């Protein structure tokens, strides 16, 4: 008798089961929307598909009467610029700090407690400080992402470096490798794909900090637009924006995973089908 844990769905079955939850949610929403709108045609909580279509056309295809720009494109570009810069800085800092923490005992003894303590500070609690120090411009928003994400990546890098087999490090030293050579030839090639994995896992966290910063102080951005129209209960704008953010997050996760498969086939052997 085959155990349930050993059964593998076909490609068609995988596609079906993957789409099924989305279909159920869509059917549930359409049914609930029809019920509410039949009772109150002016209800804004669950807009109809026609309302969504009108809102998407207004935001994504019709130039703003005030600025002449496409608001949806402007918001997306602003948010992606902040997110990309924040995550890039965080990843670079993670390598510059995390590798020495895991590789050099004196650095680990001096900085590891501080990094552990700093990672426990709620980034949103220091957002007012960032606005005071950096002002209300782009720097504060990027800084919030960096402060929120970097400690997580640093600690992950430290752990990954410490997990490298000691035998490899001993052999490299026996062959005459200096500390710098061992880092570049042994440590870095092994932890870089793990850094990409860590970035994938923290993208959701980075989005949270970005949306939070934009909601408080911004003049454009996906988070700014959502919190701007909420005062009018414009769910026909809010829900497409939320869906778009979700799609972007999924897309970046997918692209990073494919990049890891492409650059490091040895690391991802046997994982791509999972």
Please indicate the count of domains. 2
Q: Tell me the structural class.
A: mainly alpha
Radius of gyration: 24 Å
Strand content: under 5%
Mean pLDDT: 89
Q: Which CATH architecture of the largest domain is right? A: Orthogonal Bundle
Summarize the main sheet. none
Number of helices: 11
**What are the low-pLDDT stretches, counting only 5+ consecutive residues below 50?**
none
Helix content: over 70%
- The CATH topology name of the largest domain reads MetI-like fold
- Please provide the count of β strands: 0
Q: Which overall shape is indicated by the principal axes computed on the Cα atoms?
A: globular
Q: So what's the CATH class of the largest domain?
A: Mainly Alpha
Tell me the series of helices and strands, N- to C-terminal.
HHHHHHHHHHH
Instruction: Report how far the terminal alpha carbons are from each other.
Output: 24 Å
By CATH, the superfamily of the largest domain comes out as: MetI-like
Oligomer: single chain
Give an account of the 3D structure.
The protein has 274 residues and is mostly helical. The protein has helices at residues 11-39, 49-60, 71-103, 105-119, 127-134, 138-162, 166-174, 179-216, 222-229, 235-263, 265-268. α3 packs antiparallel against α8 (179-216). It is globular. The model has no long low-confidence stretch (mean pLDDT 89).
Summarize the structure.
The chain has 274 residues and is mainly alpha-helical. It has helices spanning 11-39, 49-60, 71-103, 105-119, 127-134, 138-162, 166-174, 179-216, 222-229, 235-263, 265-268.
Q: Secondary-structure map with pairings?
A:
Layout: H1 11-39, H2 49-60, H3 71-103, H4 105-119, H5 127-134, H6 138-162, H7 166-174, H8 179-216, H9 222-229, H10 235-263, H11 265-268
Helix pairs in contact: 3-4, 3-6, 3-8, 3-9, 4-6, 5-6, 6-8, 8-9, 8-10, 9-10
């Amino acid at each position: 008798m085959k155990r349930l844990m050993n059964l593998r769905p076909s490609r068609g079955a995988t596609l079906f089961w993957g789409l099924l939850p989305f279909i159920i949610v869509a059917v549930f929403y359409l049914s609930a929307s029809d019920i509410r709108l039949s009772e109150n045609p002016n209800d804004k909580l669950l807009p109809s598909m026609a309302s969504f279509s009108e809102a998407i056309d207004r935001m994504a295809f019709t130039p703003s009467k005030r600025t002449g720009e496409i608001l949806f494109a402007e918001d997306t570009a602003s948010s992606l610029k902040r997110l990309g810069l924040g995550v890039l800085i965080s990843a670079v800092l993670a390598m510059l700090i995390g590798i020495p923490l895991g590789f050099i005992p004196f650095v680990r003894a001096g900085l590891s407690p501080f990094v552990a303590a700093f990672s426990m500070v709620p980034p949103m609690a220091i957002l007012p400080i960032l606005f005071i120090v950096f002002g209300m411009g782009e720097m504060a928003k990027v800084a919030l992402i960096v402060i929120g994400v970097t400690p997580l990546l640093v600690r992950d890098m430290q752990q990954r470096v410490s997990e490298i087999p000691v035998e490899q490090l001993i052999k490299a030293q026996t062959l005459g490798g200096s500390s710098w050579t061992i880092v570049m030839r042994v440590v870095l090639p092994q932890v870089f794909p793990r850094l990409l994995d860590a970035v994938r896992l923290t993208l959701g966290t980075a989005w949270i900090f970005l949306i939070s910063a934009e909601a408080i102080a911004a003049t454009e951005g996906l988070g700014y637009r959502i919190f701007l129209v909420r005062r009018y209960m414009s769910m026909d704008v809010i829900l497409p924006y939320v869906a778009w953010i979700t799609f972007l997050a999924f897309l970046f996760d997918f692209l990073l995973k494919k990049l890891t498969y492409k650059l490091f086939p040895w690391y991802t052997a046997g994982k791509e089908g999972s």
